[in-house]
Amino acid sequence: MSAIDAYLRELEGALRVRGRTRRRFLRECRDHLLDAAAERGQAEAVRAFGPAADIAAELDGAVATRRGLRSTVVTVAAVSATAISTLALIHSSSPGTDAPALWAIAFFVAAQVAGVAGALGAVQALAARRAAMPPADVALLARRNTCALVAAGATLFSAGAALPGHGSAMVLLAGPALLCVALVSVLRARSLARRIGGSGPSPIRSPLADLAALTRLRIPPVDAARLLPIVTCLAAAAAFARDRAEHATVGGALATASIEAAAVVACFAALGPRLGLWRRASSVDTSSWNKPAK
Amino acid sequence: MPTDLMRGHLDRLLLAVLTGAPGHGYELTQRLALRSGGELDVPEGSLYPALHRLERAGLVESSWSSSDGRRRRVYRLTRSGRRAVSESRREWHAFSAAVERVLGSTA
After folding, report:
1. What Cα–Cα distance (Å) separates residue A159 from each residue in A63, A90, A153, B12, B94?
2. Which residue of B has its CA nearest to A130?
3. B26 vs A21, A36, A66: nearest CB
4. Beta B60-67 vs B70-77: how paired, if at all?
5. Which residue in the set B45, B70, B73 is minimally distant from A55, CB to CB?
6. pTM of the model
7. Which chain A residues are within 8 Å of B54, Cβ to Cβ?
8. Nearest chain B Cα distance for residue A272, angstroms
């Protein structure tokens, strides 16, 4: 076996990307090595090409980053389309229908989780769009996108279960259809990220640091333990104000605000580690929040 | 130049050597070596992940082309790629002038 064949075999073994990209890359590497060998000999051509494992890791990382970014674009589109389908569903419900309280709570919680997870993913992708992301960050991005898509689906489902009525099938199905497409795209990105070493513990990634990197604004670092009460108070205040604007009694609006606050805390506790907001350990580790986003 | 330092600039260097004419991967390494006087030392295999990134970002496009009886993937700049080269040159001149003012200063 020639030195070039041995090198290409090693490169092929190290590559985790599959399909057309892999075939084209290997073909181009072979062409390059043959050209170089004609001028400098096989041993020198292989040496100058670089270690096979490093070159394979660079391509895997570039493809994984690209898939992560692309799946985020599709996720944002799918969540938006599902929001439109959900609004269409609500507006086409039978007049005078009152949604059962449990479905209404499920609807509001799922809608907010979809919005927050989608925004976390979008901000992370925008902040990191010009650099190669480490596999763990691609895996985190995929988790955020998956969470946004599942929650968007749950929002539509809970609205449909709570409110009987008739609407345009095209509009109602547009969201779920795009949701399925986005889920496939996200799972592909996640699968590659896991194959190249992104299956370890989820990194902690501050959305505020991403936002600061994106906008170049001086956003003060706030760790997760401090951000939670701020977000909880804001969400509860918004729920109270919305209920009062809809002519609810003070008691009723306070009850809604309490449910909202409890839902925010519960979602933060349950989904925070998956969304890279805090790490499940003996103590909450949010020290890396203050590091600038990569 | 150290390899790690070189890697950070590889994308913009590739765009720059594509400015004159399209070329396949091996040609691009030769242009890099020629224009840098052999000072820019990067594993040649790193070109292909970089070209993949640039193509996905819409800065270069490629197609298979036959010459000397062999098929090769030939890369060329897109309109966005040409704009990126101009932008990159402006940024580099500003950056290198600033570094020169600091490092070149004897005070």
Report:
1. 37, 7, 10, 50, 56
2. B57
3. A36
4. antiparallel
5. B45
6. 0.82
7. none
8. 32
Tokens of B101: 């003012």
- Interface contact A48, partner B, CB < 8 A: yes
> Looking at the DSSP assignment, which residues form a beta bridge with residue B72?
B65
Q: In what order do the strands lie in the sheet with B60-67?
A: B23-24, B70-77, B60-67
Q: Which two tokens stand for residue B45?
A: 């295999």
* Cβ atoms of residues A10 and A40 within 8 Å: no
Orientation angle between helical segments A169-195 and A52-91, nearest 10 degrees? 160
Q: Is the pLDDT of residue A183 over 60?
A: yes
CB contact under 8 A, A28 and B48: yes
Report CB contact under 8 Å: A25, B48.
Answer: yes
Longest alpha-carbon distance in chain A: 85
**Partner B, chain A 127-166, Cβ-Cβ below 8 Å:** 132
Q: What is the pLDDT of residues B22-78, one digit of tens each?
A: 999 999 999 999 998 888 778 999 999 999 989 988 999 999 998 777 888 999 999
Q: In Å, how far are A8, A17, A62, A197 from A13, measured between CA atoms?
A: 8, 11, 18, 15
